[in-house]
TrEMBL record:
<dbReference type="Pfam" id="PF13896">
    <property type="entry name" value="Glyco_transf_49"/>
</dbReference>
<dbReference type="GO" id="GO:0035269">
    <property type="term" value="P:protein O-linked glycosylation via mannose"/>
</dbReference>
<protein>
    <submittedName>
        <fullName>Uncharacterized protein</fullName>
    </submittedName>
</protein>
<keyword id="KW-1133">Transmembrane helix</keyword>
<dbReference type="InterPro" id="IPR051292">
    <property type="entry name" value="Xyl/GlcA_transferase"/>
</dbReference>
<keyword id="KW-0472">Membrane</keyword>
<keyword id="KW-0812">Transmembrane</keyword>
<keyword id="KW-0325">Glycoprotein</keyword>
<dbReference type="GO" id="GO:0016020">
    <property type="term" value="C:membrane"/>
</dbReference>
<dbReference type="GO" id="GO:0015020">
    <property type="term" value="F:glucuronosyltransferase activity"/>
</dbReference>
<feature type="region of interest" description="Disordered">
    <location>
        <begin position="214"/>
        <end position="241"/>
    </location>
</feature>
<keyword id="KW-0735">Signal-anchor</keyword>
<dbReference type="GO" id="GO:0042285">
    <property type="term" value="F:xylosyltransferase activity"/>
</dbReference>
Amino acid sequence: TAHAHPAAFASRYTALVVPTFEHKDLTACDEHKEDDGDRKEACLRRFAVDQSPRTWDDVAACFADGACIMYHDNFPFSHNTTNYPRLFQNPDPHHIRMFDCIQSERYEPYVVMRWSAALSAFDEMFVGYGLNKIQWLWTLRKVGFRYGVAPNTFLFHVKHPKSQAREVFRRGIHQKKNIKGPHMELVYKYASQLLQTYDDVEMEGRARVPICPPPVQDIIERPGPNRHPQERTPGAPAATN
C-alpha cells in the first residue's frame, strides 16, 4: 500500500488503518485441553494455514458469508470506526477513505505510518500486555494524526493459545466490576494528562480528528478517576465515515 500510494504518506501525520478480520467460529481445536499445549498449538497452526483467507477476494467472500467478521466483534468500540461493510463497497480500489471523526476513544486499529520524529514513543508505564497500544493511539490523535483506510488490504487474526501475560492481566483486580486496579488507574491518569497537555494547544496546519457525535442515549463522560477515557457528548447519531 505504501508503494502504491506514496502520496498518502506525503504528510507524516497520516495513519493508514489496516482492516483486521477473524473467524466467527472460534471453537477450532477446542477438543484439545489447555494443558495439552503442544497438540493444541499444532492444531491451531494447521487451522490457520488451511482456513484463513489469503487474498482480498477471499476475505470479501468470507465476510459476505458471515464466516469472517471484524476483529474483536464482541468489543465493537475497538474497530467499528473502520466501517467494515463499507470496505467492500469502494468502486475505486485505489481510493483512501479518510475519517472525519472516530466513533470512540477506544478505537485501536492496526496502522501503517511514515517513520518520522512526529511519532510518539510508547509510554514505558504500559510495557507488556494491556493498554499499551491504546495509550499510544490516544497520543497520536492528540498530536494531530489523521486516519484513512488502506484499500484492498487486510490483516487476519488467527486463534492461538492464550499468553501467560494476558492471563495475568485478565485475572487482575481491575477486571472486577467497579474495582480499578493499579494498571487501570495508570491509564486514567495518562488520559487526564493528555487532555491537560494538548486540549488547549493549537497545531499549525493540522486539526485533531474529533469523536463522532453519539446517539443521545449514549452519553459517556470525559476521563475521571472512575471513568473510561471518552470525549463524547450528546448530539446527533454517529457519523458513518
